[in-house]
Structures are given as C-alpha cells and as structure tokens.
Amino acid sequence: MELKTLTYLVVGASFLVYIGIAIWSKAADTGDFYVAGKHVHPVANGMATAADWMSAASFISMAGLIAFLGYDGSVYLMGWTGGYVLLALLLAPYLRKFGKFTVPEFIGERYESRIARIVAVICLVFISFTYVAGQMRGVGIVFSRFLEIPIGAGLVVGMSIVFVYAVLGGMKGITYTQIAQYCVLILAYTVPAIFIALQLTGVPVPQVAFGSEVRGENIYLLAKLNEVVTALGFSEYTSGTKSTIDVFAITLALMVGTAGLPHVIVRFFTVPRVRDARLSAGWALAFIGLLYLTAPAVGSMARLNLTETIQTGPVGDPAANLVYAERPDWFRTWESTGLLVFDDRNGDGRIQYYNDQNAEFAARASGFGWNGNELSVDPDIMVLANPEIAQLPSWVIALIAAGGIAAALSTAAGLLLVISASVSHDLLKGVFAPNISERRELLAGRISAGVAICIAGFLGYYPPAFVAQVVAFAFGLAAASLFPVILLGIFSIRVNTQGAIAGMLTGLVFTYGYIEVYKGLFLRWIGSPWINNVAENWIFGISPEGIGAIGMCLNFIVAISVSRMTAPPSQKVQELVERIRYPRDAATT
User: Which H/E stretch holds residue 289?
Assistant: First the structure.
C-alpha cells in the first residue's frame, strides 16, 4: 500500500479512537471538566501524565537535539526527568491535600489575595501559550510531511480534534484520551528504534545497541559516529562544548520548570487520595523512562544514518558526495516542507555537508572545491525522517507519524484545558463573578477552551523557534514564576501576599525579557548597539534556555525579602500551611 494512503489510515484510526473516548467520557459537571471527578487510578493517571508531559519536544525534537548536540543534549534528558523527582517529593502530595482545581486557586487562597491569583493566571497563560506553540508546530510538521497537506490545513485538522475531546470531555475526556495517546506514541517511538538498532548493530535493544559495535565493522557505534562527524569539521559527538555553569543552569531550569508546569501539576488533583498523587508521579516517571532511555540511541543512530547518506566516502573525494539529482525520495519529500534545504554554492550538483563555521576545516574544504555548507537540516525532522532514511517498511513510517501527532496533541490538550480553567474558574468564578452557576461556568470553560485553541493554532503557524527551544523557554518561565511561590506556599509560613506577587512578577519579567532580548525582537525595535552587545554576551555565560534558573533565584530572593519587610500572613493561612504540610493525615481524602 502507498505510504500516504497507509498514513491516512493509521492517523485516521487514531483520531477515531480519540473522538470515541471523548464521547464516552463526556464531562457532566465542573468536577469532571477540571479534575476528572478525582477518581482516576494512579497507574492510569501516571500514563496520562506521561503523555501530557511527553510533548512534541520529547517525541520529535529531543532526539534531534541529541543528534546534533551530542553530549550537550544530555541536559534535556537530565532536566526533564529529574524534574519528576522534585514533583513527586515537593509538590504533588501537598497540592492534592489542598484539593482544589487549579494552581492559581491554590496561590489565591494560600496568599489570601485575588491579585495574587490574577498574577498567577497571567504567569500560567504566558507559560502555557509558549509551550503550546511548540506542540502546534509539531502537529504542522507531521501533517505537512506525512499527509502532504499545507501546514495551515494540518493545524486546522489538529485543532479540530483537540477541540472535540478537550471541549467536550474536559479533564475526564483528556485523561482517557491521553492513555490511548501514550500507547500510540511509545509504540511509534520504540518500534523504529528496534528496527534501526538491528540494522546498524544486530542488537534489537536500542539502549544496548547504543554501546555496541557496528555490524560488520570492528568499531563501536559512538566511536564511528565520532569519526564521521569530526571528519566533516564538527565537534566530537561524545564531548561537550557548553560551559559547566550553562549545563547546570539549563538542567536546573528544566527540573524546576517541570515541577512548576501547571498542566502537569493539575494532573495530581485527579486522583482519589494524597498517597495516590505520589504513586502517580512514580508511575509517570516509569512510563516516561521508556522513551527517555531510548532517545540517546535514536539521536545517535539518526545522525550516523543521515551523515553517511550524504557523505558516502572519504572526505575530499568528489565522488563521495551525494549527487543532488540522485537524492532519495525521503530527501525530496522533506525538502517540500522547507525543513531540509539544499543550496548548491559551488554549482557542482553534489551536496557538500560540513561545518563551515570551523575555520580550520573550511580552509581545507576549499581545497576540495567546496564553497561552504550546502545543506540545512532542521533538528525537528530527525526522529520523523529516521525510519525513511533507514528504508524501514511503510507501516513503521505511518506509525511514527501517528505517534508524533499523539505526542503533540496530548500535551496541547492539557495546556489548553489549564488555560480554559484559569479563565473560567480562576478569573470568572474566582474574581469577577463568584456567584455564577456551575452550568454557566462549564459553558465559559468550553468557550475559553475554544478561543485558546484558535490562538494556539496561530502560534503554531508562526512559531518563535524550533520545538524543543520553545518548550525550554516555557520551562524557564515556569521555573522563574510559579515554582518558587508554590514551594514557599507549602513550606514557608512567613511568605505573604506582597512577597508572592513581587516574586512572581520579578521572575516572569526578568526571564521573559531576557528571552526576548536574545531573540532580537526588542533589539530590532529600539536599535540599540548596547543592548545588542548584551544579547551577544549572555549573563554569567547562561543561555536563554537556562536563564529560568536565575529568574527562579530572583523570585525566591524578592519573595522572601518583601515578606520579611511586611506583615506576616493571617493565622488562618498559617494553619492552612501546617495542614497542607502533613499529607499523611489525609490518606483517605
């Protein structure tokens, strides 16, 4: 069967499953819509949490980053998985003990302030829309390549599917849909990895193949990859180029950002008991580990396959470079998406692929008749293109398309529901119309979810960066704004309203401002050479992906300092903090 037809069938079947689940689990009240009635089993919640959290960045972009960054890509593995340890130990059981619907609701009640609740909503919306932009970009990439439709049309289809099960089913529908999506995405990720591991090393377990010898050659996979990439002027795959402080900052920002992500935190409000919140975090980490332990092998195998396809012999041999006119079908189809670009700089009709930023190698390459790197490869295509490069069966390629869409839609739905709950529950009912009926609140939640989906589609069509970078920014914003005030709200009796508001705003403004300066949006507006110089010289050598760690520290400092200079919280709040800090007393609630 033709690949396009098969992909339509596989993706279409998965969509029918998602819609069927949404109809079966339609939300009947606000409890179902916001927290799935608080009766989700911890294993099921762990699987849904894993799907909610393993976004397009995890499925599509992370292995692509590892493929090109090599050792430096390990920060994403350490940060995103380490965050779940923080979440399980420091937040999940305590927030479940609190027992409300949303993170802003906790902040508003803990700090006795509607203003604090509104600021928390603003932070949450910034984080969620930044994050959802990456998911919708992932949807567009998959649709444009595998279903061969324009990115805009693909986004409309993806938005429509999310609209059905997020607006109709709410958290209840999303939870059970995410369980199905997890099954799809984990199969789609691991099956191609097994096939390619067998091809390259003869070992069917990707994690073992990662450290095995290449089939028919007396050399280990990573050693061969080092040879191949360094021969083309790139850095050694197994050596790092990032500074120690940047690695530490990015890892820390991703860890605390994971623990502060609102769409992840709200999942722990859906289980029956406090101890189930801890169990959910443990199960989620186990389900996440299946993909994350596979990602390094997928990234390395993808980089080796791509490089050896383009460079088929010794560097410097003109006949070793792939003739553009003879490029394989996968190359042609990815070119049509604009994510793979060839520019024949020397007009010889062959693809020169090397690191022309390496001055020493570029000088040598000029002796080969090369005139600069001619191939641009977007990191986001590596996982999706890998099965095609390896010439795997069409059904495997169709499966990975369904998996990529499942990963993006599962997280997008969770984020959009959080945005919806913030508008309908935290702003409308919590601030502006406290006497609104449950029926009207549910209607407002569905309308706000629909509006949020439209905005998400726009952000997917005009994304600010590639998927994993956008998501890293979202984690940094969560680390700098929400995590400190949630943590202090649980463990500090002294931190008060003024401190929480000042801390959230400081962390959010600093981190978002730094990211904007880095992206150059602000620079183009004011045209200041001094600001431009700042953008080229990162603070303390910390990149924008890790600046959330500094924003977090500023949040802590400001929140604690302002609280010390102002009146302490009321006795009622102090008693609330004491009650929350002992979750074992509510094992049956």
Answer: helix 274-292
Nearest Cα neighbor of 401 from 99, 43, 8 is 8
- The answer to whether residues 515 and 476 touch, using CB atoms and an 8 Å cutoff, is yes
Query: Position 150: which residue type?
Result: P
**C-alpha dihedral over 202, 204, 209, 214, to 10 degrees?**
10
Q: How many CB atoms lie within 10 A of CB 124?
A: 28
Query: What are the tens digits of pLDDT across the range 407-435?
Result: 877 777 777 777 777 777 777 776 777 77
Global pTM value: 0.79
What would the pLDDT profile of 315-358 be if each residue is shown by its tens digit? Answer: 777 778 888 998 888 898 888 877 889 998 888 888 988 888 88
Asked if residue 264 lies in contact with residue 418, where contact means CB atoms within 8 angstroms, the answer is no
Give the chain's domains with CATH numbers.
3-19+33-301+389-586 (1.20.1730.10), 302-383 (no CATH)
Q: Which of 415, 476, 453, 108 is nearest to 267 (CA)?
A: 415
Coil vs helix vs strand at 341: strand
Q: Which one, of 214, 235, 218, lies nearest residue 226 by Cα? A: 235
Task: Using CA atoms of 297, 298, 304, 305 in order, give the dihedral in degrees to the nearest 10.
Answer: 140
**Three-class DSSP category at 493:** coil
From residue 144, alpha-carbon distances to 4, 208, 310 in Å are 11, 34, 23
| Widest Cα–Cα separation across the chain | 79
